[in-house]
From TrEMBL:
It is an enzyme of class 2 (transferase). This is aspartate transaminase. It catalyses: L-aspartate + 2-oxoglutarate = oxaloacetate + L-glutamate. Its EC number is 2.6.1.1. Homodimer.
Amino acid sequence: MNRIFSSLPTTVFEAMSQLARETGAVNLGQGFPDGAGPDDVRAKAAEAVVSGWNQYPPMMGLPELRQAVADHYAHHQGLDLSADEVMVTSGATEAIAGALFALIEPGDEVVLFEPMYDAYLPLVRRAGGVPRFVSLKPPHWRLTEEALTAAFSDKTRVVLFNNPLNPSAVVFPDEDLALLAQFCVKHDAIAVCDEVWEHVVFDGRRHRPLMAEPGMRERTVKIGSAGKIFSLTGWKVGFACAAPDILKVLAKAHQFLTFTTAPNLQAAVAYGLGKPDDYFTGMRADFERSRDRFSRGLMERGFTVLPSHGTYFLNVDIAPLGEVDDVDFCKRLVTERGVAAIPVSAFYAEGAVRTVARFCFAKTDATLDRALERLEGLVQRR
């Protein structure tokens, strides 16, 4: 068996979800919304599966979806992409895997920013890459020139960058993006940008893609997710956008991973990406309201809540509670209080922060209120 995958332990995400199922806990660990998703987008998918084409669609994706992605990013982010620079994938994780397999030769160094999505490291290693870590710290999780200088070298081939960043819920400011772009250009590195949370940003923020930075247009793979844009996490429709010379190699990796994606879902996403701006602003407002409701409830109960600028998540600093191990804290939280959270140390390979716990607030008011009721008195007791 392949040692990279056979040696992986059961993830803390599965462990916490299993505990939540066994104890009947309120599960704020898994990152999916309670809602059903937009009615009209789901209706388009149903209509397309009944009345549309259900055999193999083009490997690169339906032409109407590739054009819709290009138009969407032109409108919302000011990017000048053609449909020929867009490829449809079976979710963003497939796009990330394909990009890494296509771009990395054994021995190439890959810069990773931790905390990070748990798929990154095994995929980098399976591609033969050598990880170089930049460890970000709360409460602001900022990039620094010193940290980037230590991570980059003449062997750096790829930079894997998640913005907005799960689990820290930070939206990197313009100066951090400019700094990272300078390092990518200086070291002739390609940036694989996981931007699945690009529409889930709060407090009037607008997502700025790394591709828009000087020197990055021809050296960036921009990855998006319809599942996050439309709160339909089970659909697994992603997009990879890159200059033609890069995309043609990504396409060869994609061909031997999933080859294609359900055509009815592609048709529905193409429709959804053209929805009026009110949908996107309304979606953000709804999540922002849930964030504020849950954040306020936690603070009223004595928790130290860290800023959440985007994603479905917010974090609490458990150090003021006298806690020094977030895994132990989260296990006790689910068994003693009936609320499941995720220890942020699980998102680190090195230099782990061990005093932060992540909650998903993309839930109904009733679910959030039930969790808050169960957390009542915890801070004072400890």
